[in-house]
Amino acid sequence: MNKNLFLVYFCLVLAMIFWGFSFVGTKISLEALSPITLILSRLVVSSLFLLLLTKTFGWLQPIKKADLKWFVLLTFFEPLCYFLGETFGLQFISSTLGAVLIATIPLFVPWAAWMLFREKVSFLNLIGIVISIVGVVMIIFERDLSFNVSLTGIILLMIAVFSAVGYTMVIRHIANSYSPITIITWQNLMGIIAFLPLFFIFDFKSFHFSLFSEKIIYTIVFLGIFPSSLSYAFFTYAIKELGVNRSSIFTNLIPVLTAIFAYFLMDEELPGIKIAGITIVVVALTISQVNYKNLFSRNS
Predict the structure, then answer these.
(1) Is the pLDDT of residue 4 over 50?
(2) For 61, left (φ over 0), alpha (ψ -120 to 50), or beta?
């Protein structure tokens, strides 16, 4: 393996570790903060970090006037709708289930690409969706088939899933014109503008700096710098080097890592049936994303 390829895979694994922890970090922060305050704090930390980084090294590209509409739409999908769905959803369901639902994003991207761009959808993607549903059902139902998960939480997480699909469709229009770190910096800065009115409407009256304990501050700083900044940069870098399909397979690690973090840091129960369900979802995602023609090609 050459050094460049090793760096790509190293960045991918780090991105998955950071994203895996982000669900646990969000749950921890929600013990003290409301979702909107948490999201806004996370975006502020991320934007300050990215601005310092890009200004220091001269990496920040200006937005072309013709592309402004794409950045506005990008911001609408993510961070606005995505973080609202994910963060509010995690108030009602476990971090592990949240990570499993978010991990299904790659299953829906090809269908959106088919509807918007008439790209072909593989039979394996359809099989992946069917198998992943079985895995999710195993996670959300108990052994006696009782439903112990908030339907509201699932709906909110699915809003986040479809927001991420919309984000993926929009980013196609600007990915080749701007560096990954430029895109992330601008979308987070614009995200602050989007969330500020919500903060003043819903959270300002009850806000107090005493809510930010030392533990919460450390968690938000970590969420802002690593999952909200570096993970996006690492993953976008990997997509440019490896392509969407090969890079997306690594996202299957997220629910596994989240389950491990949640088990050790939050004492979330992880019985055998839920482990089996997570495994089935990971297998389904892998099946749906592997290009078997390229896999067995002599030139792959």
Answers:
(1) yes
(2) beta
Cα 249 from chain centroid (whole Å): 14
The pair of structure tokens assigned to 111 is: 């269908």
Burial code of 213-232, b = ≥16 C-beta within 10 A, e = fewer?
A: eeebeebbebbbbbbbbbbb
> Count H helices, E strands: the chain?
15, 0
CA–CA gap between residue 139 and residue 100 (Å, rounded): 9
Q: Specify whether the CB–CB gap between 78 and 163 falls below 8 A.
A: yes
Q: Are 64 and 121 in contact (CB under 8 A)?
A: no
User: Which residue's entry shows tokens 């760096």?
Assistant: 7
Find residue 147's DSSP bridge partners: 141
Taking the C-alpha atoms of residue 115 and residue 113, their distance in angstroms, rounded to an integer, is 6
Q: In this structure, how many other beta carbons lie within 10 angstroms of the beta carbon of residue 5?
A: 11
pLDDT in tens, 7-59: 888 998 999 999 999 999 999 999 999 999 999 999 999 999 999 999 999 99
Phi, psi of 246, rounded to the nearest 5 degrees: -65, -35
Domain chopping of the chain, boundaries: 3-295
- 243 in the Ramachandran plot: left (φ > 0), alpha (ψ -120 to 50) or beta? left
Residues 6+ positions from 88 with CB-CB distance below 8 Å: 35, 156
- For residue 141, the cross-strand partners are 147
Token representation of residue 211: 């809510």
What is the band of 252 on the pLDDT scale with cuts at 50, 70, 90? confident
The pTM (predicted TM-score) of the whole model is 0.86
Q: Rg of the chain over CA atoms, in angstroms?
A: 19
**Nearest 5°: CA angle at 290, between 284 and 294?**
165
Length of the chain: 300
What sign does the CA torsion over 16, 216, 28, 33 have? negative
CA dist 57 and 50 (Å) reads: 11
How far is 36 from 152, CA to CA, in rounded Å?
17
